[in-house]
Amino acid sequence: MGRNGLLTLPAWTRAAMVGVLGGAVIASATTVSGGTVEAESRSFITSDGARLHYLEAGPSGARTVVFVPGWTMPAWIFEAQIEALDDRYHVLALDPRGQGESEVTRFGYTHERRGRDIGELVDHAAEGPVVLVGWSLGVLDSLAWVADGGADRIAGLVLIDNSIGEAPAPRPASTPPRSAAPPPEPTPQERRERRAAFVASMFAHDPGTDYRTRLTDQALRMSVEDERRLLAYDVPREDWRAAVHSTHRPVLYVVRPRWREQGENLVRTHPDASMTVFEDAGHALFVDEPERFNALLLDFLDTRVARTVH
User: Fold this and answer.
1) Nearest of 234, 228, 227 to residue 111 by alpha carbon
2) What SS3 class is residue 229?
3) Which of 8, 91, 111, 205 is deepest in the core (most CB within 10 A)?
4) Helices 188-201, 209-218: inter-axial angle, 10-degree rounding
């Protein structure tokens, strides 16, 4: 038995134990990624009929912190943050559609729908204003919800290692010359090798073969076409900036050096924004340096958010 009398299940049993019956959420306790963190494994149905999975931990009456992972990544990548917060905060970690244990739908891979998914999770599982923590593509998904009316539900924003529409714009990626025929689709083996390389590239400090393999397995669930849709949000950069500035709640921008100049402009123009640069971490900086990131996050929650939201 686990904490609070909950049965702790191995992570691989999670999918078999989660479902929705007659609109009621079925939940089970589980460890995330085979570690020692306990969270309840839950799901809900969105307004367009998708079953989305999320992890829930901590006291339900406390301030809610919502984690949104990046492109193709699962919610459990935030395991160290769940463990650090769940004694004092109500924690929700979303598997966006097509990711983690959520349904791989054949629709809904737009920034508007993904933002709406976050809002519907908040409406379903949280009370009062929430602190939203988005990483990588999760930054844009989170800002899509803020722009679509979610600003009224925000107690604070934590935006991790992605562009937020401030100057200077990211350098455009080089594109191959146009040809009459589209590039051939990768074979399953080629796709897996490329995804494994992508996963490995997220870390400055190798988290281990088993950890990387679990991430790679879960990062291959959706179709190639839908993966590409997620990498091609057709939104002017100014819209992301406007979303950040639409709330006067505290904003914490946590980045690697490549986004330093954007952070400096954010701090200069937003009434309650700060930036912290992780000089030696990889893209998944909260995994590379969890103790430092968790201390930063807790200070943000305990001081700046607590001071401005009652």
Assistant:
1) 234
2) helix
3) 91
4) 120
Tokens of 206: 């190798």
Separation CA 308–CA 217 (nearest Å): 41
Query: Sign (positive/negative) of CA torsion 21, 25, 28, 31?
Result: positive
Positive or negative CA dihedral for 135, 229, 231, 197? positive
Helix residue spans in the chain (DSSP H): 14-17, 79-85, 111-125, 137-147, 188-201, 209-218, 224-230, 237-245, 260-269, 285-288, 290-299, 306-308
pLDDT score for 35 = 52
Q: Which residues of the chain have pLDDT under 70?
A: 1-37, 173-182, 310
- pLDDT digit string (tens) for 221-233? 999 999 999 999 9
Q: What is the reported pLDDT for 65?
A: 98
Instruction: State the Cα–Cα distance between residues 198 and 180, nearest whole angstrom.
Output: 28
Look up residue 83 and give its two tokens.
Answer: 């463990």
β partners of residue 52: 44
Upper half-sphere CA count for residue 9 (Cβ side, 13 Å): 15
Model confidence pTM above 0.85: yes
Q: Starting at the edge strand that comes first in sequence, how are the strands of the sheet with 28-31 ordered?
A: 28-31, 38-45, 51-57, 90-95, 64-68, 130-135, 154-160, 251-255, 273-277
Measured distance CA(50)–CA(59) in Å, rounded:
27
| pLDDT value at residue 265 | 98
Q: Quick one: pLDDT at residue 279?
A: 98
Task: Compute the radius of gyration of the chain from its Cα atoms.
Answer: 19
* Parallel, antiparallel or unpaired: strands 251-255 and 51-57: unpaired
